[in-house]
Amino acid sequence: MWLAAGYFDESTDEFEDRCFTVAGFIGPHFAGLSLDMKWKDRLEEWNLDYFKASEIEGGFGQFAQYRDDPNALTKPLSAREKDLIKAIKTSFVDLICDEDEMTGIGAVLLLRDYQVFKLQEPKLAAKLPNPYTLCGQFVMMEAGFEMLACNERYPTRLQGLMRPVFDSHEDYSFKFQHGFDSFCKKNPTCSQFLLPPIYEDDQTYHCLQAADCLAYEARRLVDNALFDPKRPERVAMARLRQTVSKIYFIKYDGLKLIAEKQRPDFISLTPALENKRRF
After folding, report:
1. Strands 161-167 and 3-12
2. Strand, helix or coil for residue 231
3. In whole angstroms, what is the distance from residue 203 CA to residue 212 CA?
4. Are 111 and 131 in contact (CB under 8 A)?
């Protein structure tokens, strides 16, 4: 028996409250360990305690040290600061892209549609969990189906199991973990090779920082497509595309499809972004 892992983090708009995302990477345990070690070394190279995509975007937190004036956090970034921050972020994105056996998956929920669906279809909406659980269970389903496809290559005695690892979350972790048995009963096909999810600190599990990067970029991809369609694709997402297996975009019609017709043996929603990729 061999072990795989999935590392997942969430991302949401702090002010606009447009999209909610859970995304991350799945792969063999040794590939995750390799990325974790390289990530730690890269943090040391840049004198960082951690990587957080939302902070690097504005030059906050750990990245304030690279501003012209670390105390002037409200000042727009200069051309020099933007170039340096881009170089730092690209160096971390490159680590993800170079780890061939780590595969990205994610789910992005349009919060506006979620709220409208609750108002217009209250009986169907009652079947849906909160945004975190909905997106979290979506990526666990996809991870389970990926694991199922992977295990088809092996005899029973050599088939593997996957441990989903989520970034610590004070509000949702307890209910999400304790809902795993119910998740398995509703989804017996995709859950048969999944171990119960655990929550860990992203400063200890560096792969969770890589998951944060994908979650942030996946959310921004959908956010820009809907609300700023003329904006060119972000450089980081253009690079991360090659690592992605599937990213689902859940809108009103998708919510209705999930509530009415979701079956336990496949995901009824068509991915918005998909590559023919397996870890």
Report:
1. parallel
2. coil
3. 12
4. yes
Q: What angle do CA 190, 98, 238 make, to 5 degrees?
A: 80
CA distance 73 to 57: 12
Q: Tens digit of pLDDT for each residue in 64-118?
A: 999 999 888 889 999 999 999 999 999 999 999 999 999 999 999 999 999 999 9
β-strands 19-28, 103-110: how paired? antiparallel
Overall average pLDDT of the 29-50 stretch: 97
**What percentage of the chain has pLDDT greater than the value 90?**
82
Q: How far, in Å, CA of 255 to CA of 257, rounded? A: 5
Question: Residue 108: CA atoms inside 13 Å, Cβ hemisphere, count?
Answer: 26
- Residue 223: both structure tokens together: 């956010």
Q: Could you tell me whether strands 161-167 and 244-250 are parallel, antiparallel, or unpaired per DSSP bridges?
A: unpaired
Q: Which amino acid is at 116?
A: V
Average pLDDT over residues 12-29: 90
Residues in the chain: 279
Q: How many C-beta atoms lie closer than 10 Å to residue 96's C-beta? A: 23
